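Late entry, zinc ion complex.
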Amino acid sequence: MATPIFGICHLCGVHKRLSFEHVPPRAAFNTNPILRSSFERVVMNEDLDDLQGKIQQRGSGAYTLCGKCNSDTGAWYADSYVKWAEQAMRLLMAARGQPSLEYPFHLYPLRVLKQIVCMFFSVNNPRFQQAQPDLVRFVLNREVRQIPPDVRIYAFYMLSNRMRSSGASSSIQGFGTGNSKLHVFSEIAFAPFGFVMTLGDMLPPQPNLVDISGFTQYGYRDWRTGISMKLPVMSIYTAFPGDYRTRSQTLADLAANKAYEASLKSGLTE
Ligand SMILES: [Zn+2]
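Prediction complete; structure with ligand written out below:
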C-alpha cells in the first residue's frame, strides 16, 4: 500500500486524506504515462524539443481532492466531459487537425462546464477555494447554475501530444509596446481541448477563444443535441500559459532574438 497523502482538498478546503484526481478525467484520453516537467525546467532548456522530467505512469493529475469531492464530481460530471472530448477528438482526427466549420455537439452543457471548473480547482493552489466560495458551490452542488460574474471560461481545440496547465497568474502581453494588457487567468490544455478561466473581469490571453460560460443557462438534467460551436485550433508548444505560437513560429522567434543579440554584441566590439 502506498503511503496515504494528506493535505487540503482543493474543493471543500478540509484537511483530509487526498486521492489522485485525473485532469482531465482518465477516460478522456488520459490513461498514458506522461512526462512531468516543471515550468522552470522547460523554460531553462535551450532546446525546446528536448523535454526532460519525470515519467508519471498514471496519466496527468495530482493528489488534489479528498475522496468525497473526487468521487462526487467524478460521478456527476466526468462522463459528460468524456463524451464531449470523444466527439471533439473524432472531429479533429477527421479534419486532420484543421476543422473549419461549426460543428454540432451533443452534450450535457452544465455538467461539462462543472467538470472543467473542477479541473481548474485541481490545477490551482488549494487556497483558491477560499477566494472563490461561489465557484466551489457551483461544483459541489449539481444544481447550482451561477458562476461569479467576473469569472469566464473559454475553450479551444488543441491537438498535440504536449500538455500544460497553470494556476491563476497574471501575464502582461505586449510589454513595452505602449499597448500592453494585463491578463489574469488559469489554463489547462490537454488534447483535444484547451480551457482558459479568466478572473477579475480580465480579457482572455487571445481574443478568438470561445466563451462557454453560457453553459450555465442549462440545468443539470438538460441534454442538448446540436450545440454548434466553432472553436479555434491553438498550439501549445512552449511552457508559457497563453502562448499559442506553433513550433515553427517559436523557433523562428528564438532565431530572430539570437540574431538580434549577436548583432548587439558585434556592434559593441567594433
Ligand atoms: Zn473535498
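The chain is about 30% helix and 25% strand. Will revisit in the morning.
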